[in-house]
Specification:
Distance between the termini: 62 Å
Number of helices: 21
Structural class: alpha+beta
Largest sheet: 9 strands, mixed
Shape: globular
Strand order of the largest sheet: 15-14-16-17-13-18-19-20-21
Radius of gyration: 30 Å
Helix content: 25-40%
């Protein structure tokens, strides 16, 4: 037990963000001077007064760490200098430590200011540094301070972070006392500049319920053995571990995966023994249930593809020689695939048909894309039911045809959505025999899977529409930004069309920049006969827009809304619900007229106009309003400092000071008055 010093009552007033208080990761610390060292150390203790030792996150360590209130009271009672938080991988938080970054007058670098202005941040014990809390995992990294730049360190699963409660004035002004924001691109960019390597794959969004729960691909033992045996067991240890993790994940840790991994590894020159392999295998259990992304068999598929890349392409001479051979056969055969025909002959061909006139052509490829939460899957299901039932879609004439949905993303939930659709429109699902669903997730980069999908679909008989939901889920491990991976997937989609004659509609995600359309390789849009965008506007409006129609009219739009349907009650008596995409008017964004605009400056007027972009009943956080206002202001000229944020904050202050003014702020929430 460490010696007790004077009681420190001021520590009892210390507060931290609410979401961190109950996490069992708190300890206490005090300054201790060591011989020969000019600077005192901050030494961590458990709350029973025992100096913290051993491995971070061990059972002993976790058992002695406490919730915030217990640590705060212990520090005050025992006269310690403060409390600290020990991050663990499963907590899902990263703490940024900026050292020697506060100037003589309290100024901080713009890149730090931009980060700490959206999350809880406080001064360090010395007052010369800043600590900020974020959701996500950036790992543990350190870049020391120099005369030219501030020090920068990240903590996600190592050490401990002191909390002083001395919140930055700017954070207190806009009410960030209880806000822990998610890691954003500005933080990632700073980390890459300072630590010299990409951290994108380490970042975990704690709001993403799939993080740490990545689905299995459903591969057979034979398929897993085929993939693993195509790899060289003498690969790097890092890749060898990935193979083991992937098998562990796919087999849920059972011996099927272990035996595959062990047998394959025996051909490597570093193999030790089955017992050593077992110890490594069991260590993978610690990843289960954590918020770290799991290594899946998609990674092994990608490794196998790289390992079995075909040899160098044929030379120029070989290509020309093959062309000469084909030319020698031409007089004795009809035109091939690329045979030139007179342009007049093209005018005599049948005009393009429509599955849904002006919406879905009887063509090769369509793309339906939208951001997460836009409702694109519900729109796809609405289109599918219209074709399968042969009923008009938004007054557009529809051809009745057989439809197959490849429900690679959430196939188990499609039945509930179909039930909701039938209940809303008043028909029995048994009266729609022409709508079929594939609930497994085929790999469109795997020729064997494509062959099986073609066989299963052709076995149904004629099929005119195949909906692939989503493109990302049928291309596991692919780099969506490269022509190599996505070109191969696109080739297999075209093969599916050639074999069945069906129009393929791929459901896809929007990119980060919504103005640039669907995510990934631009060749997908170029190849599409139609591209349909599903939009969810910030004021709640939803739209379906024909973003591209190769042989039709672009820019046509329809409004829709998601209507919640009650399907019944579960065993606990809670509602079972789903949604249906139903027609709605195309409504323009409402812009309210504000009084006394002439008496206010340009920024105040702009701020009030931006406020109208939020739904009428929305709770508007100050940070959300500031960010939206900044994003809609013109950027600074090259070489000039970006002061948009400071200007917008000042405009909020000016409006809140007005007598009977249009807004006031309470705990970081902006309240507007008519």
């Amino acid at each position: 037990m460490a010696s007790v010093r004077a009681i420190a009552p001021k520590i009892r007033a210390l507060e931290v963000p609410a979401e961190l208080r109950l996490i069992p990761g708190w300890l206490i610390w005090r300054f201790e001077q060591y011989p020969g060292e000019a600077k005192a150390r901050k030494v961590p203790y458990w709350t029973d007064g025992t100096i913290r030792h051993g491995q971070q996150g061990s059972p002993t360590d976790r058992a002695r760490l406490t919730a915030f209130a217990a640590a705060r009271d212990a520090a005050a009672r025992m006269g310690y200098d403060g409390v600290g938080f020990a991050p663990m991988p499963d907590f899902g938080y990263t703490f940024l430590d900026f050292d020697n970054c506060v100037g003589p007058s309290g100024e901080i670098a713009p890149e730090i200011e931009r980060i700490v202005a959206r999350t809880y941040a406080e001064f360090s014990p010395s007052g010369k540094g800043i600590r900020a809390a974020l959701k996500g995992n950036l790992g543990n990294h350190k870049s020391p301070s120099t005369p030219e730049q501030f020090g920068f360190e990240t903590f996600s699963s190592n050490g401990f972070v002191t909390f002083t409660g001395n919140i930055l004035p700017a954070c207190e002004l806009i009410g960030l006392e209880n806000t822990v924001a998610t890691v954003d691109q500005h933080v990632i960019d700073l980390c890459e500049r300072r630590f010299g390597r990409s951290l994108l794959n380490n970042v975990v969004d704690p709001e993403d319920f799939m993080a740490g729960r990545e689905p299995r691909l459903g591969l057979t033992p034979e398929r897993m053995a085929e993939l693993v045996n195509s790899l060289d067991p003498n690969m790097s240890r890092q890749d060898w571990i990935k193979v083991g993790m992937a098998l562990h994940h796919e087999c849920d840790g059972d011996d099927t995966g272990f035996e595959l991994w062990d047998e394959w590894s025996q051909d490597g020159y570093t193999y030790v023994s089955t017992e050593a392999m077992r110890v490594q295998w069991e260590s993978f259990d610690r990843r289960k249930g954590s918020n770290r992304r799991q290594v899946t068999m998609a990674s092994v598929i990608k490794m196998a593809k790289e390992a079995n890349r075909p040899a160098e392409p044929p030379s120029r001479e070989e290509v020309l020689a093959k062309a000469e051979a084909i030319m020698a056969e031409l007089p004795a055969r009809s035109l091939g695939r690329f045979g030139p025909v007179p342009i007049y002959d093209l005018t005599q061909r049948e005009p393009m048909g429509w599955l849904i006139k002006g919406v879905l052509p009887k063509a090769r490829l369509g793309v339906l894309f939208g951001a997460s939460g836009s409702g694109k899957t519900f729109v796809a299901l609405d289109l599918a039911f219209s074709v399968a039932r042969g009923i008009a879609w938004r007054t557009r004439r529809t051809m009745r045809a057989r439809v197959v949905i490849i429900a690679a993303e959430g196939g188990s939930g499609l039945g509930k959505r179909g039930q909701a659709y039938a209940q809303h429109y008043g028909f029995d699902l048994r009266t729609v025999p022409d709508l079929h669903v594939i609930t497994a997730a085929p790999n469109f980069l795997d020729d064997a899977d494509i062959s099986e999908v073609i066989a299963e679909i052709k076995n149904l008989g004629p099929v005119d529409l195949i909906i692939i939901d989503t493109l990302a889920q049928v291309t596991p491990g692919a780099n969506e930004n490269t022509s190599e991976d996505m070109g191969r997937a696109l080739g297999n989609i075209n093969l599916l069309h050639d074999a069945t004659g069906a129009m393929n509609l791929a459901v896809h995600h929007a990119g980060k920049d919504l103005s640039k359309g669907s995510r990934g390789w631009s060749g997908i849009k170029a190849a599409a006969d139609v591209q349909i965008e599903v939009l969810r506007h910030e004021d709640g409006r939803r739209e379906i827009v024909i973003e591209k129609m190769k042989d039709g009219e672009d820019g046509v739009r329809w409004g829709f809304k998601l209507e919640t349907i009650l399907l019944g009650l579960d065993d606990d008596g809670d509602d079972i619900t789903s949604c249906v995409a139903v027609e709605d008017d195309v409504r323009p964004a409402a812009v309210e007229d504000k009084k006394n605009v002439k008496r206010r400056g340009r920024l105040e007027t702009h701020l009030l106009e931006v406020a109208t972009l939020f739904p009428a009943d929305a709770v508007i956080r100050a940070e959300d309003l500031i960010r939206k206002a900044c994003d809609t202001l013109p950027p600074p000229e090259p070489g000039k400092r970006d002061i948009r944020r400071q200007s917008v904050v000042r405009a909020i202050q000016n409006l809140s000071r007005e007598k009977d003014g249009p807004l006031r702020m309470e705990n970081g929430i902006v309240i507007f008055y008519e």
